[in-house]
Design a protein that fits this description.
single chain, 467 residues, mainly alpha, Amino acid/polyamine transporter I, 68% helix, disordered C terminus, transmembrane transporter activity, transmembrane helix, AA/rel_permease1
Length: 467
């Protein structure tokens, strides 16, 4: 019999997982999209983020529930195949690959565009290759190395944001304005339609809290630490977004800018001068780098989970380096696909992401509902029925708000997945293959029992087993 696949190394605690999630969220992204949101909402960006924040809390709670039920890698793919059906789970995982594969591409593309604007003599493709090479190297060296890098990079982002908020408040006070005002929440040109459309855009800033679940098998005590990190990522990220949106909208009321796409950079120059605008630009580049590390690590773990199950070729996707204990081939594949960014723009690349993300969110919200009815309604109705139902409805609505281009690309990708699944399962007559993990490991054996509570001590037993 073939040797079992080598397992990942458990090294991550709640803090590291949370910083990983925050790096994926990229807190400074709010300033990169502020101009567009202010224009869309008529100067009510904080209200849009408040609505998006409330919506994402419901979905984050569903992810936390499923992370406790099934403490294994794979995120939405694993949760749906175990709670609902293997075929449905494969399609959700396949669709989520749009989000996981192309988000790193967009991140690297945005970072390269910032640097190209600052250094026009350097071709943009050089910056893209540099981003991919650096993030790939850190992820190959190990998740612990990547986590330490994220800790530093996220810390720098938060420092720049703190300066931006402080300078915004200072400018407001210098202009004779009040620091406590309802004006940022209700602009003179705001409409309900504009604010709800803005909320759909603002929700994209939260994409990535779910990436924490892809590191479940590298987390110490995953049953406790992963759900905590999910909720902390959304709560901290949402709090940052609301504070920055409020301070920025206070310093610049309304939604009219000379250059919408670079509104935040213009504001940085206005409130802090040339020196701060340079620091601000450095913060934006650091944001893209940190987020790229987290995004590439996540897609490599999703591919690992699908390869280990056998729905993707295990010889390629389920391999873990004996030296670095990381899925090196998956990391390199994500980097290679990222090179496609050289031929694309941000708008085209982004259209690939949103369809996969909101499809996965909607599906994960359905999982606790299925478990609630399968268990004979013995689980608490609030956590397994009411909250997930609200989350599913909101995410389905956000999915419907995507533009026609995104829906078309997503539908084509989903159709390809259906064709592959039909071949894999004999025209859907049987379940896709699934890896049966060693029942000597309490985490994995608990995860194999739908609804079975995992052992709290299980996190300490998952050691790397050499081939």
């Amino acid at each position: 019999m073939p040797n079992p696949p080598r397992r990942l190394s458990r090294t991550l605690h709640t803090r590291s997982l949370t910083f990983f999630g925050l790096a994926y969220l990229a807190p400074m992204i709010i300033l990169g999209t502020f101009g567009v949101l202010a224009e869309t909402t008529g100067g009510a960006v904080p209200t849009a983020y408040l609505l998006a924040f409330a919506a994402m809390l419901f979905t984050a709670r569903s992810y936390s529930r499923m992370a406790q039920e099934y403490p294994v890698s794979g995120s939405a793919y694993t949760y749906v195949r175990k709670a609902v059906d293997g075929r449905f789970g494969f399609l959700v995982g396949w669709t989520a690959l749009l989000d996981y594969f192309f988000l790193p591409m967009v991140i690297w593309l945005i970072g390269a565009s910032f640097l190209s604007a600052q250094f026009p003599g350097v071709p943009e493709w050089i910056w893209i290759v540099a981003f991919i090479s650096a993030t790939s190297a850190l992820n190959i060296l190990g998740i612990k190395v990547a986590a330490r890098a994220n800790l530093i990079l996220v810390g720098f982002q938060l420092l720049v944001l703190a300066c931006f908020v402080g300078l915004s408040f200072s400018r407001t006070a210098d202009q004779g304005g009040s620091l406590i005002s309802t004006t940022p929440f209700f602009g003179e040109e705001s409409t309900f339609a504009g604010i709800t459309t803005g909320a759909a855009i603002a929700a994209y800033s939260f994409l990535g809290f779910d990436a924490v679940t892809t590191l479940t098998e590298e987390a110490v005590d995953p049953v406790r630490n992963v759900p905590r990190a999910i909720m902390l990522t959304v709560l901290i990220g949402g709090g940052i977004y609301l504070l920055v949106a409020y301070a920025t909208q206070l310093a610049h009321p309304g939604g009219v800018f000379r250059h919408v796409d670079s509104a935040a950079l213009d504001l940085a120059r206005l409130i802090g001068g040339r020196l701060f605008s340079s620091v601000f630009l450095a913060g934006l580049v650091v944001t893209q780098f940190a987020s790229g590390i987290a995004a590439q690590a996540s897609v490599s773990r999703l591919l690992y989970a699908m390869g280990r199950d056998g729905v993707l070729p295990a010889r390629v996707f389920a391999r873990v380096s004996s030296r670095f204990l990381t899925p090196v081939l998956n990391i390199l594949l994500a980097g290679a696909i990222g090179l496609v960014a050289i031929a694309l723009d941000v708008e085209t690349s982004t259209s690939f992401i949103n369809f996969g993300a909101f499809t996965a969110f909607t599906a994960v919200n359905l999982c606790p509902i299925v478990l609630y009815f399968r268990s004979g309604r013995r689980r608490p109705a609030l956590g397994y029925l009411v909250i997930p139902a609200v989350g599913a409805a909101v995410c389905a609505w956000l999915l419907s708000r995507l533009d026609e281009h995104a829906l078309l690309i997503g539908s084509v990708w989903l159709t390809c997945g259906l064709v592959y699944l039909a071949w894999l399962t004999g025209m859907f007559r049987r379940q896709p293959p699934e890896m049966v993990l060693d029942h000597a490991d309490p985490v994995h054996s608990a995860a194999a029992r739908p609804g079975g509570p995992p052992s709290p001590s299980a996190s300490q037993t998952d050691e790397v087993r050499p081939e």
